[in-house]
């Protein structure tokens, strides 16, 4: 149904201008009066995300036969993590169904004989009890059939509604059904299907990395994974969607939940148009659109410049730490009128001195002589110090960032120094250096640590990043200072 606003208006009008309004109602909701003729029948083409079935070209309503199979199946959820998904059509999200407003849908739900549980389907596009849930509830090895007329256009979520409903949805039982307006949607160069969902997982159960559903985490709404298209990286990296500069894109985006609302955003692109919540209201020039759990959105944009667009839930830890990220790679010529890229980079030194000092709280300039520590103590303290003081530039794995921050891993530059690197940490480093054959010319600030801390952090990088396995002592650092400071 369209809006409460319409209901209210209708309620008032029914009592005042019955005849005048009914004509208006017909025009507004083609299909609802069931006046359109159903001509012929066709088998729905179903697709897995991110693919979308082809545009419907016929200009009349028809009987659409949908065959959807429920399959319980163990698949990859993240690297090293497997999960037994419950699926509509063998993948998460479920198969995309595309029909037209006014179509008669003959729906066949099949529950695969190897499955363990009963399932059903509630399509939000259905006008009728439970969206078809009661009519379609079936045990493994059974099929159910029901029919509905698609009264309203829009992009609708479907999901399993078998108790415990939350668990069936949390295991991946959701997908999208598009009900196009009778006249069809305007042509675009690409259409893609994306759907977000969260996974609440137990501790690893076996050597294959299998994890089970964790009810407590689901109740707490505290997922381990928030993913787009059923697994971390399902539509990113090698599986990214690909388009060309100048092309238009339409995304059919759903949110299966079961709990979280998605703040859907494309990093590096503005949505020219958004069909809010998958309905008929169009918003323009949108940065982030909210997609409720059990809701959808249709977003459209033109790709003007090359690069990789990151499609994320802008509740950003979900995107970069829990998996809610997909990518579109835009290929083609640069357009510097629209975007220049980095034009120059300069050293920014507001204090006017060549080398900055980073101060940490635990700085101990007081000359206390501490007993020397063991290798184990140095390594464990060194790791914490490294994470706090060095990781931001040299990266957690010590591999650095190509062209900017040199690697500490197996560094010939570090190993060739006769001070074990003490001078670099105490005084910083600038000017051109060559590390493992690659030139760097940047500034490393002096890191203000106590002698004991310098000893630990250097011991850590000498031993953990595949360098010479030296133990650096606090007294080595004190010696260096007495000679150089
Ligand atoms: C703000 C960024 C930054 C931080 C923080 C930083 N470094 Fe560096 N580091 C650099 C840069 C840049 C260079 C290269 C300087 C040059 O080009 O002369 C470098 C060079 C080095 C080198 C020599 C080159 C190599 O790869 O072997 C060592 C060793 C090193 N850093 C260790 C550390 C340690 C240990 C810490 C933490 C205590 C640290 N760095 C913190 C940016 C940083
Ligand atoms: Cu189910």
Structural class: alpha/beta
Bound small molecules, by name, code or SMILES, are: heme C, copper (II) ion
Task: Give unreliable regions as ranges.
Answer: 1-28, 361-365
Report the strand count: 25
Question: Would you tell me the overall average pLDDT?
Answer: 89
Count of alpha/pi helices: 12
Main β-sheet: number of strands, strand sense, barrel status? 6 strands, mixed
CATH hierarchy class name of the largest domain: Mainly Beta
CATH homologous superfamily assignment of the largest domain: Cupredoxins -  blue copper proteins
> What is the CATH architecture term of the largest domain?
Sandwich
Q: What count of structural domains?
A: 3
**Spatial shape:** elongated
Terminal CA distance reads 78 Å
Q: What fraction of the residues are assigned to beta strands by DSSP? A: 25-35%
Helical fraction: 10-25%
CATH fold category name of the largest domain: Immunoglobulin-like
Could you please describe the fold and organization of this structure?
The protein is α/β, with parallel strands linked by helices and 485 residues long. The chain has 3 domains: 1-30, no CATH class; 34-344, Immunoglobulin-like (Sandwich); 357-484, Cytochrome c-like domain (Cytochrome Bc1 Complex, Chain D, domain 2). It is built from 12 helices and 25 strands. The protein has helices spanning 4-16, 18-28, 133-136, 165-170, 215-219, 316-321, 375-389, 391-394, 412-416, 422-427, 451-464, 474-484, and strands spanning 38-43, 61-78, 81-88, 97-100, 104-111, 122-123, 143-149, 154-159, 174-180, 190-199, 210-211, 225-228, 241-244, 248-257, 262-267, 271-275, 282-286, 288-291, 295-302, 307-313, 325-331, 357-359, 429-435, 438-444, 446-448. Strands 1, 2, 3, 5, 7 and 11 form a 6-stranded mixed sheet that branches. The protein has a 6-stranded mixed sheet with strand order 12-10-14-19-16-17. Strands 13-21-20-15-18 form a 5-stranded mixed sheet. A hairpin with a 6-residue loop joins β16 and β17. α7 (375-389) crosses α11 (451-464) and α11 crosses α12. The termini are far apart. 35% of the residues are buried. Mean pLDDT is 89; it is low at 1-28 and 361-365. Residues 389-390, 392-394, 405-408, 411, 413-414, 421, 424-425, 429-431, 433, 435, 440-445, 447, 457, 461 line the site of heme C. Copper (II) ion (CU) binds at residues 86, 119, 160, 162, 168, 173.
